[in-house]
Amino acid sequence: MPKRWLALALLCLTGFMIILDASIVLVAVPSIEQDLTFSSGGVQWVPSGYALMFGGLLLLGGRVSDLLGRRRVLIVGLAVFAGSSLLCGFAWSGDALVLARGLQGIAAAVLAPSALSIVMTTFPDGPERNKALGIWGATSGVGGTAGSLIGGPVTDGLGWQWIFFINVPVCLLVIALAPVLLQDSRGPGKRGFDLTGAVTVTAALIVLVYAVIEAPESSAGRTTLLALVSAALFALFVLVEKRSAAPLVPLRLFRSRALIGGNLITIAFGLGAFGLNYVYTQYAQLALGISAIQYGLMSSVLAAAAVCGSMVGQNLVTRVGARPVAAVSLLLTGVGATAMSRLTVESGYFELAFWGLTFFGAGLGAGTVAGSISALAQVTGDDAGVASGLQNASFQIGGAVGIAVLSAVATAHSSGSSPAGLTAGYRVAFAACWAFVAVGLVGAGLLRTRATEPTAASPAAQPGHR
């Protein structure tokens, strides 16, 4: 096997781990809350603290990897991720766990763009890069949905601490093999950081995600105020980037319809993957009263369908283009969500849930491939780190927002704490996934048709000619 494909396997393992860590904790939250002491509502920061730091710092992570060397930054990030995972497992209080999860998120924000930019610089533009990005996108999609499958048996069998301990040997393996298998590279330019831009965009993202996560427990006025603060910070960021000699995010990137469309698609699938998975976890464990292991087995069909969908999707993108693959995939997830919205307390697993999860997973797998390829297809090597940071941020922030939005919808439409009352809210939340589909379809509409896409032989598709 060529060395570059072994390198891809190593990088995909890293990508799978950091995305998995965002979702696997959801299954373990009840056990964590029983063992550790939290203030009222404080346990929500175990999953959301990771998401906030991960999503908020991804853009800076991409810039750091471009300037300091992608392989070097990857290795340092792995070391920090391993150390913070140990701190999570040995956490002696709720506050200690939340702080350790935040450190994990910071490490993930550096790891994700470093790994993806190495993928882009390892494979030449064209069908081979499409295949590599398709495999990368598939591992990210599966990582976002496989948390319950892996987390259930680990939590019930070994204890919640082991959902963090299992990261350590993975990190050590990649650290050992990275100097042998991975190429180092960096983007040319000034060796400096746009600190003002980094602070403003990170603050804007953190405030935005914080506002959505806190919305179910906050007043409308407070949520609106936080949203306005976030918008003001984003506006300030744009102004800073226009005036910066070495901007954190070159605004020229947003002239690409493919980049904008691909990231909208990725946001949509992040919203749906994490949001639907979270609501189904609540339905299964609170309304049906099943164990974490049983839930993991029931939800495994989603991960399996996502794997199959990603393999089919990467071949179809190469043949017919990303636009139709993305559109059909989004509609498939909508069909799956519709089936889930028909669930009742008496519904048999193979009556609705099995089919809903299958359709949703197939669309998720194929669609994340199309979104990833679209977002990065027209990016030069110089901007690989920041573009990959944007693409990863889209999925992660979409996931944090999706959980918050669907949780709020479910709470607002529940009719009491009985299983039937809770299920009434969950049904509406599943149906609300169509709003996420709409976001993705807007992104798909921005993509070029196959006939107008640059080919591998055209100057636009060649490195250095974009």
UniProtKB/TrEMBL annotation:
Q: Report if keyword Transmembrane is assigned.
A: yes
For this UniProt entry, the molecular function terms from Gene Ontology, in alphabetical order, are: transmembrane transporter activity
State the membrane topology. Answer: Multi-pass membrane protein
Question: InterPro entries, from UniProt?
Answer: MFS, MFS_dom, MFS_trans_sf, Sugar_transporter_CS
One annotated Gene Ontology cellular component of this protein: plasma membrane
Gene3D superfamilies given in the database record? MFS general substrate transporter like domains (1.20.1250.20), Multidrug resistance protein D (1.20.1720.10)
The record's annotation in PROSITE patterns points to: MFS, SUGAR_TRANSPORT_1
This protein's source sits in the domain of life called: Bacteria
Start and end residues of each Major facilitator superfamily (MFS) profile domain: 7-452
The UniProt keyword set, sorted, is: Cell membrane, Membrane, Transmembrane, Transmembrane helix, Transport
Where is the chain membrane-spanning?
44-61, 73-92, 98-120, 132-150, 162-181, 193-213, 219-240, 260-280, 286-308, 320-340, 352-377, 389-412, 424-447
Q: Where in the cell is it found?
A: Cell membrane
What's the protein called, per UniProt? Answer: EmrB/QacA subfamily drug resistance transporter
Organism, scientific name: Kribbella italica
Task: Give the organism's phylogenetic lineage.
Answer: Bacteria, Bacillati, Actinomycetota, Actinomycetes, Propionibacteriales
